[in-house]
Write a structure and sequence with these properties.
The complex is a heterodimer of chains A (219) and B (179). Chain A is α+β, with helices and mostly antiparallel strands. Chain A has one domain. Helix content of chain A is 31%, strand content 26%. Chain A has a 6-stranded antiparallel beta sheet, with helices on one face. Chain A has a 3-stranded antiparallel beta sheet with strand order 7-8-9. In chain A, a hairpin with a 4-residue loop joins strand 5 and strand 6. The longest helix of chain A is centred in the first third of the chain and has 54 residues. Chain B has 179 residues and is an alpha+beta fold. In chain B, 35% of the residues lie in helices and 24% in strands. Chain B contains 3 helices and 8 strands. Chain B has a 5-stranded antiparallel beta sheet, with helices on one face. Chain B has a 3-stranded antiparallel beta sheet with strand order 4-3-5, with no helix packed on it. The mean pLDDT of chain B is 84. Classes of the chains: A alpha+beta (219), B alpha+beta (179). Chains A and B meet through helix 2, strand 7, strand 8 and strand 9 of A and helix 1 and helix 2 of B.
């Protein structure tokens, strides 16, 4: 006990140890370094969350594109507003929601149903329309097409353009198979990701497999 | 006054060790930070490249179908594009008169032209701003009578933000529909 007391008193009067000034400098350097470290760590976690949201949105649109591509691949009588079908048997009426260009595609699928794909500009979802006057849970258009979304709620599709090459041609007039090109810009709808405007500019083309005498329209 | 032998302070060696530990720590953090910041763009690029490669395969199928419908041999690539010595570039606007072939064509090939993008016409060689993406198609099994199979490789290459070279290769086989 005596020894300890001696030590303490020695310290006190011998002025060995850290002064207040030194302590303050050390602590402030520590705080600065730690705050930089924590800041960058938080930032990288936020970036990782953004990345996850984007991956999720892109995976989701991948499914929608796959669904469209399958139906387009086996479809026939394609038409858009700028490439109307020229066949006398089928009609491609003026497509609603299409004042700006080729934002909607109409064709006949393998089952013989006329279907349409379009972008709903109000909620940024891709929609599929089929002729259905009852239209449970969908949007009924004046032409009798019932539109239902095919993209998930977390996906924002801001651009959807369909380019159609050799689409409206009759088989006799042009021997080339149609070429359907889908152009879209996709991001996530999550509240902290959407304002960042990180769009994935997607383009993919589909070549319908319908050859000469292979499509119901050609027979 | 202190004696010379009792002077206190740091050795140069101690200082160097301390500074290098600090620098290593900071470098680790900066590396992590720059990695995560470019992650978003990298993901978007990968998805885009994937779709572009798929488009290349699909356009190749379109050329095959066009030849069949036109009464040409099925495996000539609509004007001689299918050639084991040459790769070719194609966009969705490409017609039978367009021919963007190049050689040498091997696994190290890089397409000469960058795709351009505009939000109204998508990825083409003619419209919009330059993108980092380059795409070419390579066909195997040279056209010959009695050859009923053709292998198609669609390769998209692009340079990432950090200067990394990325590549996506899709492979598909097409067969003679009227053997």
């Amino acid at each position: 006990m005596k020894k300890i007391m001696k030590k303490i008193t020695k310290k006190k009067f011998g002025e060995q140890g850290v002064s207040l000034m030194e302590l303050m400098v050390a602590v402030s350097i520590f705080i600065i370094v730690i705050s930089i470290a924590i800041g960058s760590f938080v930032q990288s976690i936020r970036t990782q969350r953004t990345a996850l949201a984007l991956i999720s949105a892109n995976d989701s649109i991948n499914l929608s594109i796959e669904q469209m591509a399958r139906e387009i691949r086996t479809g026939y009588l394609f038409c858009t507003a700028s490439v109307p079908v020229t066949s006398s048997t089928a009609s491609c009426n003026v497509l609603e929601n299409d004042a700006f260009g080729d934002h909607e595609l109409q064709f006949v699928n393998a089952n013989g149903f006329t279907v349409r794909y379009r972008l709903n500009g109000a909620n940024f979802a891709l929609e599929k329309g089929i002729v259905d006057s009852v239209c449970l849970g969908g949007l009924l258009s004046p032409e009798g097409f019932c539109y239902k979304p095919i993209t998930a709620d977390n996906v924002k599709v801001s651009i959807f353009i369909v380019k159609l090459i050799h689409g409206g041609d009759l088989p006799e007039a042009n021997p080339y198979p149609p070429r359907v090109t889908l152009i879209m810009a996709v991001t996530s709808k999550e509240s902290d990701v959407e304002p960042l405007n990180i769009f994935t500019d997607i383009e993919t083309s589909i070549s319908p497999r319908c050859g000469q005498n292979g499509c119901p329209s050609d027979i | 006054m202190k004696k010379r032998g009792e002077q206190k302070g740091y050795l140069l060696l101690e200082l160097m060790v301390a500074i290098s530990v600090f620098v290593v720590g900071i470098l680790g953090f900066l590396g992590l930070l720059s990695g995560t910041l470019s992650l978003n763009r990298e993901i978007a690029d990968k998805f885009t490249a994937n779709y572009l490669a798929a488009e290349g395969v699909e356009l190749t199928k379109n050329l095959i179908d066009a030849d069949i419908l036109d009464g040409n041999p099925w495996n000539r690539g609509n004007g001689g594009r299918f050639n084991s010595n040459k790769c070719f570039e194609i966009d969705y606007l490409d017609d039978s008169s367009d021919s963007r072939e190049f050689n040498p064509c091997n696994s190290n090939s890089v397409a000469p032209n960058f795709l351009r993008y505009s939000s109204s016409t998508g990825y083409t060689y003619s419209n919009g701003n330059s993108t980092p993406f380059r795409r070419y198609i390579r066909t195997f099994n040279p056209p010959a009578a009695g050859n009923d199979q053709i292998k198609v490789e669609s390769v998209v290459t692009w340079q990432g933000r950090g200067g990394s070279q990325n590549q996506i290769t899709l492979e598909d086989y097409f067969f003679n529909p009227l053997p």
